[in-house]
Amino acid sequence: MKSKRHAKILELIQKNDIETQEDLLVYLEKEGCQVTQATVSRDIRELKLTKVATGNGKQKYAALTESAEDMRDKYIRIFKDGFISMDMAQNILVVKTVSGMAMAVAAALDAMNWHEIVGSIAGDDTIMCAVRTTQDTAALMDRLRRMIGDSDA
Questions:
Q1: How far apart are CA 26 and CA 67, in angstroms?
Q2: How far, in Å, CA of 128 to CA of 120, rounded?
Q3: Element at 83 (helix H, strand E)
Q4: Average pLDDT score over residue span 9-22
Q5: What percentage of residues in the chain have a pLDDT greater than 90?
Q6: Torsion angle of alpha carbons 94, 135, 113, 43, nearest 10°?
Q7: Which of 63, 89, 105, 128 has the most beta carbons within 10 angstroms of its beta carbon?
Q8: Side-chain half-sphere of 130: how many Cα atoms within 13 Å?
Q9: Contacts of 126 (CB under 8 A, 6+ apart)
Q10: Helices 21-30, 37-46: inter-axial angle, 10-degree rounding
Q11: Segment 25-72, tens digit of pLDDT
C-alpha cells in the first residue's frame, strides 16, 4: 500500500504543480487514496521531496534527483537484499527472491537498463526476465553473480 502510494505521489508531482501538502492530499483523495496529513508529511520526508521554483514565481514539490552512481548502488543493494537464487530456461532468466521482494528486485533489474533484458514479470518471490538470447542469459547470470560477489549463485 505504502509503495503504491509513494509511486502515485511521484506520478502526481510530475504531472501537476503541487505547492502544498494540502494540495497533495486533495490529489491523492481524487485518486482514491484516503490518507491523513501526517501520512502525507511522512511520505514527503521518506521520498525526499523538495520544493523547486516554477516559472511563475511559485514553488512546487519535486523529487530530489540522485546521481547515477548513488542509484546504481541502491539497485545493487535491493538486488542483493532480495536475491536467493537464479536459473535459466533458454532465454528466460528466473530469479528467486525473499518472499515479497520480487517486485522490488525486478524494478531494480529493469532500472539498471541492461540491454540483455527485454522485460521482466514479478510475482511474490519469483521473477521471470525475458532475455534477448540464450547466450545473453548465460552472460547476464555471470554478471549478476559478479555483482553479488557469489560464484555459486
A1: 31
A2: 6
A3: strand 83-89
A4: 91
A5: 57
A6: 10
A7: 105
A8: 4
A9: 94, 95, 96, 97, 102
A10: 100
A11: 999 999 998 999 999 999 998 888 888 887 788 888 888 765 566 677
**Residue 98 is placed in which grid cell?**
525473499
Tell me the HSE value of 19 on the side-chain side, using a 13 A CA sphere.
6
The predicted pLDDT at position 27 comes to 94
Give the separation between CA 105 and CA 46, rounded to whole angstroms: 20
Whole-angstrom distance, CA of residue 84 vs CA of residue 135: 22
The residue written with cell numbers 521482494 in the block is 101
Closest by alpha carbon to 107, among 79, 132, 88? 79
| Spatial CB neighbours of 20, under 8 Å, sequence gap ≥ 6 | none
pLDDT value of position 1: 75
What is the phi/psi pair of residue 48, to 5°?
A: 55, 45
